[in-house]
Amino acid sequence: MSFFLETLVGGLLAGVMYSLVALGFVLIYKASRVFNFAQGSLLLFAALAFVTLTEHGVNLWLAGLITLALLILIALAIERAVLRPLTGRSDLTLFMATLGLSYVIEGVAQTVMGSDVHALDLGIPDVPMQVGPIQISVFDLTAAAISGVLVLALSLLFSRTRLGVSLRAVADDPLAAQSIGIKLDTVWSVVWAVAGFVGLVAGLLWGSRQGVQFSLSLVVLKALPVLIIGGFTSITGAIVGGLIVGASESLAELYLGPLIGGGLSAWFAYVLALAFLLVRPSGLFGERAIERV
Fold first, then answer.
1. Mean of the per-residue pLDDT values of the chain
2. Which of 46, 63, 172, 219 has the fewest CB atoms within 10 Å distance of its CB?
3. Residue range 199-217: average pLDDT?
């Protein structure tokens, strides 16, 4: 039982970090109906810029502030220079634009900061800690706590504040939102800036866990099952979907791995997501599309 609990808790802690990555997608999709594939590149850019600054002697906190400013500027530039002119185009056009942007961001990052692998030390020890009958990694627990606090804060921000009401109005009907005085440009700019901040936190946590390398941008692929299960338009769905993915892939590796071979954690979440697509395409908390016939 203790081994089962260790596996379950470890999976849930990893799931919170998956939720953090998925949250960046949800915020932008709710505001502009754009699936921002460049979110992974922003995550990589954040980790790479931060570790480059610290390696050149910049204080951790100052490096974080500089990186945050860079990410917000990049996010605002993407929204204003690329996606705003494409407003009203097809979803496929917008997706291809963000896909192209992801390669541009990665190419610029590689040109400016190099392609070497870096170790990122945030000062969080990666050692086991005894909690009752189970052992939990201090790093996993701290990273999950940081991710959980951020996800909760953003959930409250977008559900209990005027900005959140404006965001929901824009998500439901942009034209109707404009007609009552909501400025779409302002809402989109704020959401993209917040998504940049989320990318910074996710990039630092995942970079510290996996090392800062260009494969770090592929972390966004883990967010896809989370979004499919939880729903593309729900912050709550991002949380629940992340927990489901984290726990299920850990338990599947433990119990099904010996039966059908190892490596289940790399693909089991996608099998689960496919099952959700067949049964509930909108996800657990997603909005079902209603079309007038």
1. 82
2. 172
3. 82
Q: Crossing angle for the helix pair 220-230 and 39-55, nearest 10 degrees? A: 140
- What does the alpha-carbon distance between residue 53 and residue 213 come to, in Å, rounded to a whole number? 15
What DSSP designation does 81 have? Answer: I
Report whether 122 contacts 146 (CB < 8 A): no
Structure tokens at 171: 């998500």
Residues linked to residue 130 through DSSP beta bridges, in sequence order: 135
pLDDT band at 262 (very low <50, low <70, confident <90, very high): low
Q: Distance between CA 264 and CA 44 in Å, rounded?
A: 25
Beta strand residue intervals within the chain, DSSP E? 128-131, 134-137
Q: How is residue 115 written in tokens?
A: 């392609």
Q: Which string of b and e fits 192-217 if b means at least 16 CB within 10 Å?
A: bbbbbbbbbbbbbbbbbbeebeeebb
What are phi and psi for residue 11, nearest 5 degrees?
Answer: -65, -40
226 close to 18: Cβ distance less than 8 angstroms: yes
Residue 50's identity, in one-letter code, is F
The CA distance from 280 to 282, in Å, is 6
Residues 64-112: pLDDT tens digits? Answer: 899 989 888 888 888 888 877 877 788 788 888 888 888 888 888 888 8
Q: What is the pLDDT of residue 293?
A: 47
Contact 84, 185 (CB under 8 A): yes
Give the global pTM.
Answer: 0.84
